[in-house]
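Handout, section B. The chain below has 492 residues.
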Amino acid sequence: MFGKKSDTGHSPGIVLPQQPAAAAPHHVPVAGAAVPDLKLGQAKVAPPPEPPKAPPEARHKSDSYYDIKSTIFNALIDAIDLTQLGQLDREAARDEIRDIVNEIISLKDVVMSIAEQEELLEDICNDVLGYGPLEPLLARDDIADIMVNGANTVFIEVNGKMQKTGVRFRDNAQLLNICQRIVSQVGRRVDEASPICDARLPDGSRVNVIAPPLAIDGCALTIRKFKKDRLKLADLTKFKSITPEGATILEIIGRVRCNVLISGGTGSGKTTLLNCLTGCIDHDERIITCEDAAELQLQQPHVVRLETRPPNLEGEGAITMRDLVKNCLRMRPERIIVGEVRGPEAFDLLQAMNTGHDGSMGTLHANSPREAISRLESMITMGGFSLPSKTIKEMIVGSIDVIVQATRLRDGSRKITHVTEVVGMEGDVIITQDLFIYDVVGEDANGKIIGEHRATGIARPHFWDRARYYNEERRLADALEKAEQRNIKAAN
């Protein structure tokens, strides 16, 4: 047991409102602790079986609960040596906190049931050792996004739908403290001087924080959850994001070193799709990834992961995405993977694709393949490159082979809606052709979108010669033939 800084002492009893199905309130003394003589509440009748409860994070806790938690938490901080606590492993630290909290509960005459006491202990351990109220949400595999809009409002996305939770923070100061704890783990900071920050959790989950004074109602924290089970292209067919034939063609596209641009809106699954495509890369290739916050999950043995860096307090020392992409060219890459193209680094990526680094990939925000091309042009122009429009378009045509469009439909499902080749130019217009598209037919009684993937009938894609070079033309022809047969079957 850690030595206390001061005598905890007695305070008036604090009574937590009892839940209807809870066991009779009582205290749990700590072995070896100086506990006052307390009377246990006697239950006159056996309590009825408790009905199934919602997850702890879904239940709204009362203001009195947070008052009690604050009182006990403050007493814990006074009683515990945080320096010694930091030297223990997580389980040993939890045991120490549990012992001291149990003692404080007894000394302060806090009346609560065992279930309520366990919940309080878990909350306090999460506050001291983890990410506070976020811990139960981070532990759930079915959550895709966690969105904190100030201390009292937390939303999650499950199966493509937004849900409001009962999770809340003690106050905005606790929320800011947790945000600072998250970003400091990757050497970043968030405060009044630097109120916007991109970071990541140790498991790879992507984090964005925007703090006051920019966020008026307290810190706005957004976490894109990391999937523990890495998806493959075959998994996308199970989710009906694409047909088996379409997945085979995407696998061939990745295998034969086509330069791929993945386009899509926010939350459409661009990074997931990029992870799936990188699974097709041979294990003897040297891959270099460039990201703002490292979240790609490449499984190949020869991967170099690079991450941008924000400026320091003096506004110096920033390393931008463009710096990383330019440096990649000096590192003997065979493939360059850019997590998200959003600025002048588009020029350097296209240059890399056009100078022997076939099979490079990147993502960008756009709502269609045609819009993705326009955005590339805009990013290069805004980067200060004084190039004629036709020259930029020729660079795009010479660099990008395939654009894959990912879309999040209004029912929350995610689909690959276009697999589009960049073919060439006619005059000043870039010519593209679709290999696969997704047609929306309607919706069912439950509001689920009904649609179908359809091959466009292209029998010989523009990358056919590249597929033949890698001995993949037979498999490509079979996939296209099966896709056409699926079209005929659907038409009948």
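Note. Residues 2 and 83 are 10 Å apart (CA to CA). Compare this with the example in section A.
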